[in-house]
């Protein structure tokens, strides 16, 4: 098979002029580095959560999923190693941005707010504490960097690149998706603090939702029961890995190759808990 993308987590194969196969591995990255050790079943968890949300939101916007059944895949993928982590999708003309929706003030947005600076061209009005829910979710797009870091941009930058009509539709769809899935997840004990979407255009020029949606890798998940305004919440993601790397540097260098197995096992349990609650 022709592999056209070897990503940090996903490998993408071209199987025809209009179809791709995406395989979600158990690889885990932190600080833009792929760790040498995987997280058990992480790929299967991400695939299952994303598939659930794609099904849940298909009345809002069409998505790229064709099948998750190995029997529908080319023969190369009909093996146990691909089971549960492989999906056949439509090939799209992907838009060159990530469309991020933030429902809570945290991370880089919080830093900008504390310093009285705009974020993605937005002046954040109101009095907020760390991790507090915003009055309304904000649309904060970014570039998609194949090398290095993504860069935050303004909505006006998206308009310049894609036109007012398409940019407006992308913003409306992104916020609608966030509202819809936020409510469902909250009932399951998970706060979706923020999330990102990727969209592409099909052969008819229509918008199609792609990549992954509302997974621990594409979203910031917090536990409803642990959440407190003004406190950095515990995340349902790879935060344990990041924290270990930050707290165990040697001579100022992160020890990517030396992460203990128990940290990876606990991380696998966190991903599995997301799947259990949502699906």
Q: Structural class of the secondary elements? A: alpha+beta
Helix content: 25-40%
Globular, elongated, flat, extended or rod-shaped: what is the shape? globular
Indicate the mean pLDDT. 96
Major pleated sheet: 7 strands, antiparallel
Give the terminus-to-terminus CA distance.
32 Å
Question: Low-confidence parts lasting 5 or more residues at pLDDT below 50?
Answer: none
Cα gyration radius (Å): 19 Å
User: What count of helical segments does DSSP give?
Assistant: 6
Portion in beta strands: 15-25%
How many strand segments? 14
SSE topology string: EEEEEHEEEEHEEHHEEEHH
Provide a compact summary of the structure.
Helix content is 29%, strand content 24%.
Tell me what you see in this structure.
- By secondary structure, the protein is an alpha+beta fold.
- The protein is 29% helix and 24% strand.
- The strands form three sheets. Strands 8, 9, 10, 11, 12, 13 and 14 form a seven-stranded antiparallel sheet that branches. It has a five-stranded antiparallel sheet with strand order 1-2-3-7-6.
- It is globular.
Keywords:
279 residues, alpha+beta, 7-stranded antiparallel β-sheet, 5-stranded antiparallel β-sheet, 14 strands, 24% strand, globular
What does the secondary structure layout of this molecule look like, with pairings?
Elements (H helix, E strand, L loop, with lengths): L1 E5 L3 E5 L4 E6 L4 E2 L2 E2 L7 H15 L8 E3 L18 E5 L2 E2 L2 E8 L2 H8 L18 E7 L2 E2 L11 H8 L1 H24 L2 E12 L5 E4 L8 E5 L15 H9 L13 H18 L1
Antiparallel strand pairs: 1-2, 2-3, 3-7, 4-5, 6-7, 8-12, 9-10, 9-11, 9-12, 12-13, 12-14
